[in-house]
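User: What would this chain look like folded?
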Amino acid sequence: MKKGFLVPLTLCASLTCQAGDYFFEPVFNSSERYNSNLFMRQVPLQGNWISTLSPGINFGLRHENGELNSNFTWNQLFYTNQTELNVAEQLFSADYKHKYERLEWNLTGSYNNQSSINTEATTTGLIFTQLMRKQLSLAPTVTYSLNEQSSVSLDYSYNNTKYEKNSNNVYYS
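Assistant: Here's the prediction, encoded as structure tokens.
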């Protein structure tokens, strides 16, 4: 096949192409908060300054009919008076939207590995620890436009949370 024939052929070929905009955005957040009664006792043991450092990444895709937005964040929590409570958390979320002429659908989801403060009773007293929880959330939505003023929508939401086992082999679900 001659090269001179390929150029006009590729220019005349009708291919279904869509322009897409990919994005990648690093983000960083930090915060400091004070909690005077972290364990909600009648007589507080001590106050805590809690520092949070949160590096993360926003990434996704935008095109003519839809878009995908997602985020991954790593939270590092530092407790000034109780370093045994320091913990790392992972958060991921994604949202996809697609639109046709009258039909639009959306899927939102997240997976979080976060901490919860846990109180365990022992023979010597109470022990305060971090207990990790894994949380999955999914929420699909479908909307159909009947006309310019009316539409029908169907939504669903699913949430599932599981707690890791603690030292007493007791866990929450």
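Residues 122 and 168 are 10 Å apart (CA to CA). If you want, I can go into more detail on any region.
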